[in-house]
Write the structure tokens for this entry.
Amino acid sequence: MRILIASMSGILCFMQLNLAQTEALPETTVDSAVDSKGTLYILTQRSLRVQTAGGARSETTLAPSLAVADSGFTREILHAIAVDRNDEPTVLWSGMRGNGSVDTFVTRLNTKAGVRLGLSFGTARSLSISSTGDIYVLGLARDQEPLLVAHQFTATGLHVRSFHPFLGSSASDLEARRKQLSRARIAAGADAVYLLFPFLSNAVYEYRQGTLAKAHDFEGVNGPGRKVLSIFSNEGNVLLHSVVNGETGEILRHEILNVADGAIVRSFSAREIAGPVLGMTPDGRVICRDATVGPSRDSISHRR
């Protein structure tokens, strides 16, 4: 599977070797994804920006409800973006009607094919599509009891199951939502799905058929002081980016691990990575979010 998912609240670095190029990002950035060819898709509140590995850029205004017959939507909310098994950018979005009703859809942007999901979402943070076409959403569904944060759907939008408890008592618990869903990621592997909540713990939760199979704790792997930053799908595997800190808190190195067995896939010096790694292409390029600058200075940095 070749799904590389990237949540962008700060800046992105697209790194291969040493040549850098920077472009300003819109402050309305919602999410991003990169395909197996290195094409970067940046989802904003109203548009899709595309940048190829060769540097070509384009921007398209998005109105996904136009592909929905008799929708009657008065407002569209773009939640997240992923790339499916055919490298097609796919958007998770909700449409709101004047009477307050909401429907949530997954729409493929090239073919305009879309499905209505069996649940509607008020808050959604991450989207992943498995190699079999199953859809996974991380977020809070409307009118669901008990509250769960991970949701599986078939390729046709049928709700299969929900799993992993929400830590708050209600969806209106803003502090619980912030802690659990900020920078949280869902990533589908070949035979399992993985959840990461960086603001809560260093554990990566592995689910199989909606049942918790294992909580991978990486804090003590390969030495003390490890901090987990992100997870992403890559060729059927789910990879994890973590930093190893020294005794005084300084970053010694960055490591990309295979979640399933903890094996090191790539290692970088402290200065090579500026923030959480969000994807890696087959030829070794990585995408990271630069955590050293604020949203007002968002940019993409390409390094070759």
Remarks:
- The mean pLDDT is 81.
- Residues 34 and 40 are 4 Å apart (CA to CA).
- The domain at 4-303 is CATH 2.120.10.30 (Neuraminidase).
- The first helix runs from residue 174 to 181.
